[in-house]
Amino acid sequence: MSLQHEPWLVALSLIVAFQGSFVGLHLARQIGEAQGLRYRRLIASSALSLALAIWTMHFIGMLALNLPFAVDFLVLPTLISFLICVLVVGIAVIFVGTNPPDAQRIAVAAFAMGGGIVAMHYLGMSALHATLHLTHAPAFVAASIVIGVLASGMALWLGFGIGAPKSIVGSAALMALAISAMHYTAMAGTSMHPISGVLPSSQPVLSQGLLAVVVSIVAFLVSGLFMLSLVPIPGRGPAASAAAPIGAVLAADVPSGDAKPDGLDSAENEFRDEEHDAVPTTPAGGWAKSLPVERDGLRRALDVNRLSAVKAQAHYTQLFDGEETWFCPLTISEVAARLDPAIFARIHRSHIVNIDRVSMLKQSGDASQVALSTRTAYWAPVARSRNRWLKQRLEARLGKAS
After folding, report:
1. What is the pLDDT along the chain (402 residues), one digit of tens a residue?
2. Fewer CB within 10 A of the terminal residue: the chain, N end or C end?
């Protein structure tokens, strides 16, 4: 039996695939500069949003089918297909979001993402076996897998790849194409035959079109809630752990029971040395004398001489002047490129500190943190790979002072 689709439902399936992909990929872009609880939330939210886009597109695509008979959707296979999709897509999100994705990481993520799309489709199709007998043409199965993997790879490269345009809109469009093209290619090779003598357990309460609209609205609302996590919070300062002593002190072997700053974890302190050990090129106009900040809708300039620490916050930063925190529209990489490396050091993927204001280096196992000699207490995490370097630099500074 040839399969016919309702055009407007096909268009709706493409829209929900794009919208969910846009939110999921946008969330994935924030993972690299996040830490602690926000780091984990971003991974989970990105995976859920992308999996929801795949599942919703598939569900609406199935509702778009014009069948001469009613069918039952088994709940368990549908649920399992979604959960497996979340897990597999989560692997792809981790590969492209946690480190700068090279060709190898993009390839692994593409296979994981494409695998999630394919698994969602064919496991979801098994939910129809109660009332239908399905057969899949091998050539179309192979083509759908190739389309899912290749289109996913192109989408992930466009949005995350080194040297790529980093276009989230283009990446989301390609991801929506990967999801939709895989689905409709697989459906083109699927034959459906009603099982003789088996009837659906009940007629649907809602029409297929109305049910598709309801599912789409729910998907849009869920993605909108995920999108709220991208909204920056200007003026939110870091939690103060304790008053930092004035003067340069190096401390080691602190008991493990001591409090750590929010999100401090040895596994999260890692970042690639080659990105930070390279000697920055002096800008044509020299190192910045001030940095742009915003508060209460007004734009100002913060004197770099007042700057004590910089903390990454998604695509923005928080500048700490020793007493209060300012919202800065620049990324931490853009801020680092403007600051004199003789004074400011990036000690963690999420932090830059003024070396002259470091008063204490605390070590507890593999985890380290620094305290700043500022009016308001401030602690910053130190990446494990930067711990020895920072300690040597602080010791050198103490030597010069003496």
Report:
1. 566 788 888 898 899 999 889 988 988 887 766 666 777 888 888 889 898 889 889 888 888 877 766 666 677 888 888 888 889 899 999 888 876 677 888 999 999 999 889 988 888 888 776 667 788 899 999 999 999 999 999 999 888 876 677 788 899 999 999 999 999 999 988 888 777 655 554 554 445 556 666 667 777 677 667 666 555 544 443 333 333 333 333 443 333 334 444 444 433 444 544 444 455 566 666 888 999 998 766 788 889 999 999 999 878 899 999 888 888 989 999 999 999 988 999 999 899 999 989 888 887 666 788 889 888 888 899 888 888 888 888 888 776 655
2. C
Q: List the one residue out of 190, 206, 187, 243 whose CA is nearest residue 372.
A: 243
For residues 104 and 120, give the distance between their C-alpha atoms in angstroms, rounded to a whole number. 24
Decide if 239 is inside a domain.
no
- Classify residue 243: in a domain, yes or no: no
Opening angle at CA 216, ends 232 and 223, nearest 5:
15
Q: Counting Cβ atoms within 10 Å, is residue 365 exposed (0-12), middle (13-18) or buried (19+)?
A: exposed
- pTM for this entry: 0.56
Last residue of a domain, one of 203, 230, 257: 230
Q: The domain spanning residue 325 has which CATH number?
A: 2.40.50.1020
How far apart are alpha carbons 218 and 377 in whole angstroms? 44
Domain range for 330 = 249-401
Residues 6+ apart with CB under 8 A from 207: none
Listed residue (17, 93, 26, 90) closest to 228, CA to CA: 26
Examine residue 123 and state whether it is found in any structural domain, yes or no.
yes
Residues 380 and 321 in one domain: yes
